[in-house]
Design brief:
- The structure is a single chain.
- This protein is mostly helical.
- The chain contains 18 helices and eight strands.
- The chain folds into three domains: 4-137, Fumarase/aspartase (N-terminal domain) (Fumarase C, Chain B, domain 1); 144-181 and 193-223 and 266-395, Up-down Bundle (Fumarase C, Chain A, domain 2); 405-460, Fumarase/aspartase (C-terminal domain) (Ribonucleotide Reductase Protein R1, domain 1).
- The strands form four sheets. Strands 1-2 form a two-stranded antiparallel sheet.
Length: 464
């Protein structure tokens, strides 16, 4: 028979397994919110531990606990939460009512019970160390949850920025590798003018360079926190010294340039900053989607498509068509991008649906934003590692397309004019000859002059 302990809240009593670190508030939340089946993101748990540690250190420094052994135990337990040692005890579902109160209380109960363990007291002995009176001292869910979310988001943004930079550099390497390969440029999927495969890759690198810069700038928005504002931003229940000191302590502990919001009421009720950040992530997703689809097109075939590049072959592509290999990495990246765009809409709606002094949908905002950051980071990594770095060019295919395409004709216009060029195209089609063959035969160019028109230097020259 499982041993239990009895815990109480304002709704009554509940039997809790005797050896667990969580308590009655966590137990009720687990029963009430079996929705996603996903627990809290590990980065949010870590950040919550850091918030609790900063609060505990500030309360201890200000002398709110006369028992130093108790204060040190609370600090140690909070540090264990932030280090990930107690993740298994954070059980609540990522989606929950109460603006994140269930998450806050799960963390509070685990810290309280772990601190009781440290000082050798029985679990649930809350008259000695209380989840509410001690661990939540001078705090509210409404200032700790958003603050923890911003810290978690900043950390994941920093990881994503590095992954985007790595992706940018991978395309820059391909730009150098393919600089000498002249190919057909296309508009509306139709042959247009000549370019190089290197220039095509350079455009992808530049897009990710913009993404990287945008992502870097997101931290400026997220570093302003409302910790110390307690319930609605008035600081009710917290002494002024605590409010002035706690963010400084959190900044020192995290090495993140955090600052207390000048208007804590605004910082508590309005969460539009998450919409702004999500919009930046959506912009990055749009580039991922466009570029991953471009690579699929350029590698299509291999015999009946564009076939200008080869993507690394990662797995057999069909259970019925022998030898078929699909562009699975760009396909996966595209799906991550589409999911990000959907998440952006969720975040916009959740952030705008708050009422008066608080946004009650913070759990949904947190889950969706952190999921987006995690997904994008993984997508960028696999895109680079399993696709971009292994791209090779089919030079013969590119050369043959250039020789046989009418796209070269635009380069002849400065010498022969638009109308004459149009006639040349018709002759080439009528006589089933290449533009080169027609132009040389009609004495418009020598073979060498024509060749000079399609060198990498000529097609990349800015202007005529």
């Amino acid at each position: 028979m499982v041993k239990t302990r009895v815990e109480k809240d304002l709704l009554g009593e509940k039997q809790i397994p005797a050896n667990v670190l969580w308590g009655i508030h966590t137990a009720r939340a687990v029963e009430n919110f079996p929705i996603l089946g996903n627990r809290i993101h590990t980065e949010l748990i870590k950040a919550f531990g850091e918030v609790k540690l900063a609060c505990a250190q500030t309360n201890n420094q200000l002398g709110f606990w006369d028992n130093q052994k108790k204060a040190e135990a609370i600090e140690k337990a909070s540090a264990e939460i932030s280090s990930g040692l107690l993740n298994e005890h954070i059980l609540v579902d990522a989606l929950q009512g109460g603006a994140g109160t269930s998450t806050n209380m799960n963390v509070n109960e685990v810290i309280a019970n772990r601190a009781l363990q440290i000082i050798g007291e029985p679990l649930g002995k809350y008259e000695i160390i209380s989840p509410l009176d001690d661990i939540n001292l001078h705090q509210s869910t409404n200032d700790t949850f958003p603050t923890a979310l911003k810290i978690a988001s900043i950390r994941l943004l920093r990881e994503l920025e590095q992954s985007v930079l790595d992706l940018q550099e991978a395309f820059q390497q391909k730009e150098k590798e393919f600089a000498h390969i002249v190919k057909i440029g296309r508009t509306q999927l139709q042959d247009a003018v000549l370019t190089t495969l290197g220039r095509e890759m350079s455009a992808y690198a530049e897009a990710f360079n913009r993404d990287r810069w945008r992502i870097y700038k997101c931290e400026e928005r997220l570093r302003v926190v409302n910790l110390g504002g307690t319930a609605i931003g008035t600081g009710l229940g917290a002494p002024k010294q605590f409010i002035f000191r706690v963010v400084d302590r959190l900044r020192e502990n995290t090495n993140i340039g955090l600052a207390r919001a000048e208007n804590l009421i605004d910082g508590t009720q309005n969460v539009d900053v998450f919409v702004e950040v999500s919009g930046i992530l959506k912009a990055h997703a749009s580039n991922l989607l466009k570029i991953s689809n471009d690579l699929r097109l350029l590698s299509s075939g291999p015999d009946a498509g564009f076939g200008e590049i080869n993507l690394p072959q990662k797995q057999a592509g069909s259970s019925i068509m022998p030898g078929k290999v699909n562009p699975v990495i760009p396909e996966a990246v595209a799906q991550a991008a589409i999911l990000t765009m959907g998440n952006d809409q969720i975040i916009a709606q959740a952030c705008s649906a708050g009422n008066l002094e608080l946004n009650q949908f913070m759990p949904l905002i947190a889950h969706t934003l952190l999921q987006t950051l995690t997904i994008l980071n993984s997508a960028c990594k696999i895109f680079r590692e399993h696709c971009v770095v292994g791209i090779t060019a089919n030079e013969d295919v590119c050369k043959k397309s250039v020789e046989n395409s009418t796209a070269i004709i635009t380069a002849l216009i400065p010498k022969i004019g638009y109308n004459e060029a149009s006639k040349l195209i018709q002759k080439a089609k009528t006589e089933s000859l290449s533009i080169r063959e027609i132009a040389v035969r009609n004495g418009l160019f020598t073979d060498k002059e024509f060749e000079n028109l399609i060198t990498p230097e000529a097609v990349c020259r800015l202007g005529n």
